[in-house]
Amino acid sequence: MESHNGPTGQTGAHLLHRLFEVQQQYMHIPKQSILELAGELRLPVSQVESVVDFYSFFHRTPRGRFDLLFSNCTSCGDTAMMRSLCKRLNVTPGETRADGLVSINETSCIGMCDQGPALLVNSRTLTGLTAIRLEQIAAQIEAGVPVPEWPVEWFRVQDNVRKNGLLLGTAFETGSGLRAALEKGPEAMLAEVTQSGLRGRGGAGFSTGMKWKFCREAKGDAHYVVCNADEGEPGTFKDRILLSSHAHAVFEGMSICGHIIGASKGYLYLRGEYRYLLNDLHAVLKRRHKARLLGKHILGQAFDFDIEIIVGAGAYICGEESALIESMEQKRGIPRVRPPFPVTKGYLDQPTVVNNVETLAAAALIAVHGGAWFSGHGSEKSAGSKVLSISGDCTTPGVYEYPFGVSIQRILDDCGAEDVQAVQVGGPSGTLIAPDEFERKLGFEDLATGGSFMIYSKDRDLLKVISNFTHFFAHESCGFCTPCRVGTTLLKNGLDKIASGHGTKSDVDEMYRMATMVKRRSHCGLGQTAPNPLLDALKRFPEVFEQRLVHDSEFEPHFDLDAALEEARQISHRDDAEAHLA
Amino acid sequence: MSTRKIRVATTSLAGCFGCHMSFLDIDERIVGLIEHVEFSRSPINDIKHCHPDCDIGLIEGGLCNAENVHVLKEFRESCKIIIAVGACAINGGVPAMRNHFTLKECLEEAYLDGIGVENPMIPNDVELPLLLSKVHPIHEVVHVDYYLPGCPPPADAFMKVLTDLLEGKEPSLPKEILHFD
């Protein structure tokens, strides 16, 4: 596979890329294309079909020529707006209008939480929606104006960096990190990274130095570096800024890692929702080639390294490193059984480092300034800083960088959040905290986070928030293991029952039991964290559930019994007493 | 010890009676069981309604029609303990395979369009219970105390659960009984 050789001048002949092109051309993946792609890429037809069915952005039946996906995130989503546009254009959500012109549906968070409401139209990101903008969009669609001809300002994505810190605020000269790393040599550079105390910024916090060391020591035909830019956790958008304004540092971190572990190939796996960044990222890669920071004999030395970009297609689970590797291998994003871990058996079963965007950018700075410089910031077990994506009920949402150890209250004060009811730290898979915990500190010792920070004021209905997250996990479960596939749906149904005013104490007890089971028995991190919002809310905000319960009954049916007979009544033309259920 | 025998009621809703047949596979052990148990409403004795003070209700099958719902509610009102017996009661089982289709499609296939159908019409006699639009497991309509899995659950599983309850213990099934492959 070579870079920049695709028919659209984008990335190489990867199944996900080819399917994207077919989807754009026909607004779906025709059966014939599946057969052709299987032949072209020498893949089993069943594998191509399974990939088409797995990823949200591919469809077997035609979407509209204008295919709109509204984010349903609590920060960048507005499904009421979606319904109003549906009404305006006479579209049923999820279905394509009879004339084939337009289709409208929901999608999981698209990472525009600081400038929502937002949507994707034919995979392009449109931010800052208003009622007026919706009217304009409807007019463009009805007039059949192609999306590339829509006003460019509609698609503008702002960085919104509100507070610089160690990473965003330190000037980085392109090439300086790589130059320093090559000068030091792989062993000394690895020692710097280890000394820095840098831990994975995706949220899990594994020691970066240790990961690179394991991979360096692992035997294999080839080694690989993968940058995980599948930033799918709702409320997270900090990698978006790193990729748009600090891409050199990110690519440089990948190259430095490659030099240490003995890799000559790196991949950046970009979430499909960030496709709008692709051209700029390719331009940065080109510039790095020109500057001899990529390619053969980098900086005149015996080090070859190149980077290719793979673009996802709407699957949160691909942020899990082993699912991401599966996706890179042109398969469904199903997490692997670990161990073996990617450091020994990763991409193509070869030793692979998978790191978060922010981790790699930090590594580039560490190469320039040294491990001691980095470990001098932050707290004891959490060296350095954290870039946060702050959204929700505050006056200035955006990107804020803090040294680890900062208190939640300090952050809330800085972004102008008042009358706060709760904060979701680390996204739906993280921790929901109440005001009496706002003195807690960010860091691996206390509140770990991948960067999502969602604020909910006292005006918010927390049950709706929890329900949104629970629906999200049920939608994103890959379906591989039963506890997660079935469990997340049962949790969703349970919450819907309570939200609709039909829940009893027994439903709450059952959900608690189910949530504990899903957490304990699921195969990967998705299922193991999916019940967190529910469990946190049950513990910290029990009244949110309590006030919706039916109290004069021990048990309520899960569905409307009489309504369940309606279809039969119509077919048999009966309406006698026996044709009803109380 | 209780002064009266433990009262057990059983029924098959949208099931195949396979669970009942499996229950009868306890064979001669039923003689010992009868020392401690009397059967209320059950297909075994054809008693039509539950004694208002039953101890245990064994429910086979899920809910496919209005009558299933009435019977299930009678059991819940009469029995201290309700046990969902077998795959259909617990998950809907084979009858729930119709949930992939609309009720209309199912009835049209069976009574109008199917091969060999004579005098095609969808039955509408008032004596017939109306079908629910989907087949449901029983825990979606009443509170269920215990679940006895299997298709069908083996006779030993029935014996174990009943013996535990008779001894006043929390029923538990050892892994050997739950392991089917």
Q: Most extensive interface, residues per chain?
A: A-B, 21 and 21 residues
Strand content of chain B: 15-25%
Number of DSSP strand runs of chain A = 14
Shape of chain B: globular
Tally of discrete structural domains of chain A: 4
What is the helix content of chain A? 40-55%
CATH uppermost class of chain B = Alpha Beta
Number of strands of chain B: 7
Named CATH topology of chain B: Rossmann fold
Mean pLDDT over the residues of chain A: 96
Which structural class best describes the helix and strand composition of chain A?
A: alpha/beta
Strand order of the largest sheet of chain B: 2-1-3-5-7
How is this fold's topology laid out?
The complex is a heterodimer of chains A (582) and B (181).
Chain A: H1 15-26, H2 31-41, H3 45-54, E1 66-71, H4 79-89, E2 102-107, E3 119-121, E4 124-126, H5 131-142, E5 161-163, H6 166-169, H7 176-184, H8 186-196, H9 208-217, E6 224-229, H10 238-245, H11 247-261, E7 265-270, H12 278-290, E8 306-311, H13 321-328, E9 352-356, H14 357-369, H15 371-375, E10 385-392, E11 398-403, H16 408-414, E12 420-425, E13 431-433, E14 452-457, H17 462-476, H18 482-499, H19 505-521, H20 525-529, H21 532-540, H22 542-546, H23 566-572
Parallel strand pairs in A: 1-2, 5-11, 6-7, 6-9, 7-8, 10-14
Antiparallel strand pairs in A: 1-3, 3-4, 10-11, 12-13, 12-14
Chain B: E1 6-12, H1 18-24, H2 29-36, E2 37-39, E3 54-60, E4 63-65, H3 66-78, E5 79-85, H4 86-91, H5 103-113, E6 131-136, E7 146-148, H6 155-166, H7 175-178
